[in-house]
Recover the amino acids of this structure.
């Protein structure tokens, strides 16, 4: 059986790691042992932070909605409850965008949510 030289495979694997480590500082970009560890850790962080990014943006949308809703005399939770009772199904991303770009349209939604709340119906009667 003939001998198999593995230089080509190793070189390709190393090249792939170095490409992923491009821009890293010090030995982390040009020494295979350090680069491999750094790239592995970077991939763990990127996986985790793709999930965290979704959480962070949802929190931002909620803060923006809450700020806009308080001008209409409601809190965020009462506003969402009112929208649900009114049968309005708009996600928080779109609500946040409306609050920033179309304040008049957003205030119409606030009025609909207010009207759908039970204490608003009791006050009207």
């Amino acid at each position: 059986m003939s001998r198999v030289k593995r230089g080509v495979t190793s070189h390709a694997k190393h090249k792939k790691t170095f490409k992923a480590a491009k821009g890293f500082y010090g030995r982390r970009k040009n020494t295979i042992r350090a680069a491999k560890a750094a790239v592995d850790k970077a991939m763990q962080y990127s996986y985790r932070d793709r999930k965290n990014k979704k959480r962070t943006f949802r929190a931002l949308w909620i803060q923006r909605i809450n700020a806009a809703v308080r001008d209409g005399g409601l809190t965020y939770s009462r506003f969402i409850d009112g929208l649900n009772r009114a049968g309005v199904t708009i996600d928080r991303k779109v609500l946040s965008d409306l609050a920033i770009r179309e304040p008049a349209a957003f205030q119409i939604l606030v009025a609909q949510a207010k009207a759908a709340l039970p204490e608003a119906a009791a006050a009207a009667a």
